[in-house]
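ok trying this again, last paste got cut off
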Amino acid sequence: MKSKILERILKIITVRIIAKYNPLIVAVTGSVGKTSTKDAIYTTLNKYKNTEKSSRNFNTEIGAPLVFFRVDEPGKDVKSWLRILWKGVKLILKKDDNYPEVIVMEMAADRKGDIEYLTSFIKPHIGVVTAIGDTPVHLEFFENVNEVVKEKSLLVKHTKKGGTVILNGDDGRVFQMKGRAKAKVKTFGLSNRAEIRAKNIKLTGTEKDPRGIQFSVNHGTEEHKIELPNVFDEGSVYSVLAAVGVGVSLSIPVYRLVESAAEFMPPKGRMRLLKGDGFNIIDSSYNAAPKSTELALETLKKLPGKRKVAVLGDMLELGQSSKEAHEKIGERCKFLDVLITVGEDSELIGPSAKENGFKGDIFHFKSAERATEKVEKLTSKGDLILIKGSQSIRTEEIVEKLMTGDPQKELVRQYHPWKKDGQN
């Protein structure tokens, strides 16, 4: 009941703030890649427009409005929430001359009605849909995949008529959402049907010291090369393409957008390459879904390494599709030298991998804590290790034990409540 009252107050104040400042709103949804895409859009636009983005993955009924209040932490108690609400009221009473021109935010669809609620008072000028995949997360709260697609497509439906919808042209379910758009539609991706397309993707650097990824961005007759240092995954390519699409819809020249997008760095825990003692770690410990896990394994396959090791935690919130989704991931593990799974349903990955030709060693542990000791023992110089799992599996704890850098600077979820007792 208290949360519903807070939602109502946040909604009332947010509506007044939007009416007063009229920022251009860019909203991002999808089953994977929302936060990375939001960050890529912010990085790309901020050189040309006063831009603000939502903090971390605040994308729910209570979290999403906070970006309009210009706060980056939710309230922890009544007193802190009162301070946040008062800050919002002050924005209404006294004009902030430095209020952002553009606000980039996420909209989650964890349950039916989430996006319908948010778009009832936050009307995007630009709506971006990243990817859905064959088995999206949060299926446990929907009847089937089509219900997930229908919910996320509401962002497309409610994007303002004079605005633009930016859709992943390579994801069939997302591409079909163009039929619900009242706004103009632009598509991005790697396929020929994408209007903003990446070509000639290749890794840069050497086998011992991989540098990043390079590709060309094509839009109409234009083609511009871009290099992303410390970025190695295809998912980041999609994030950058979506960001270019947003910039193009705001009439910023493509070559300018490519220049600024080159500064994009994936958020912590999302396919960052970290150093261990003589080996490399692909840290994808923030979260896991079938689509993002498939892309992560493809990145592991392409990058150089003496041995390829994958530590895969449960992919949660998949409902009745969980068994099939974990078994499908096993089908993609044939190239690995070592497979370590963590959690409950992830135990299904190993047998599936064996059935599909995997010849290496397989280990399974119920918790990240128990898996860590094994990973530390088997790791050797020259290895490349992918570590990925849903949030509550806490696979970042494994990364922390293996890395040589500063966890506070390089790892996700290092703030006190989470470190203490697992609160997100």
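PB: full thing came through this time. The chain is about 35% helix and 20% strand.
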